[in-house]
Amino acid sequence: MTAAVRCDGVVQIYKTRDLEIVALRDVDLVIAQGETVALLGPSGAGKSTLMWLMAGLLRPSAGRLRINGTDVSRLSPGALDRMRAADIGVVLQNPGRNLIPYATAAQNVAFAQRAARTDRRRAAALLDRVGLGGMRRRAGAMSGGEQQRLAVAVALANAPRLLLADEPTSQLDDDSGRAVIGLIEQAAEENGTTVVVVTHDAAVSRALGRTITIRDGKVGAEGRHGEEFVVVGREGGVQLPPEFHELLPPGSMARVEALPDGVALRRAES
Ligand code: ADP
User: Fold this and answer.
1) Which of 34, 47, 99, 217 can pair with 25 through a Cys bridge, CB separation 3.0 to 4.6 Å?
2) What is the reported pTM?
């Protein structure tokens, strides 16, 4: 089956006036259709950059990124816009940026449905699920938490094949956070939506099937059902998790010893 997301050696470099910042280096990643993934990692690791690439808002500096089988680097800006409107729901980090400030909650959802047939029942059900069924205020006059809940409803308005959300619960209390997580899980279960969420919220990562930890612009670790694994990269490299840096500090030398089911690294005395 075609993967929802496939990154092959993706590199992202930001060029500022006097500096080049390598935000992602050689990211290899496959996310299957219908998978639900939490993107974890420290601030500045490259999570939002990866999200922006998957949303088609950036094009990779090098490497290949395919979304639902389509190589995004080869799409014209118009074709990319059409793909985004039809297939991808995006919740950006600043919730206000996802919304039309002078439109009501219902109008925002209806506008997001423009690429497909407007479905009032679906729109009303989405707003109910995030506790905004009776909301009459314009989006620009809502609180940050209300805007965040509305942004998730807007992103799901079209039943997208891929939902990308950057910290969608950061401004929510526990109850609202649970409502948003429930809505995202429902989208995956009922519509087969592939979900990728950048999050620092443990409740969100627990609810999703797979975690991917980005460190220093690379896939550092993967988690399945609460257990963390390092990932062996294309040249055989692994990122040791920070909690092992005291035992094997970066730059130290180690002996590699074969075990029946893997290898052990032992610090070499220098
Ligand atoms: P995260 O989401 O994990 O916090 P980001 O993807 O936002 O990480 O950032 C990765 C790196 O790229 C950081 O060093 C950040 O400063 C840099 N960066 C992000 N966006 C830009 C930009 N528009 N211009 C220049 N550098 C950027």
Assistant:
1) 217
2) 0.92
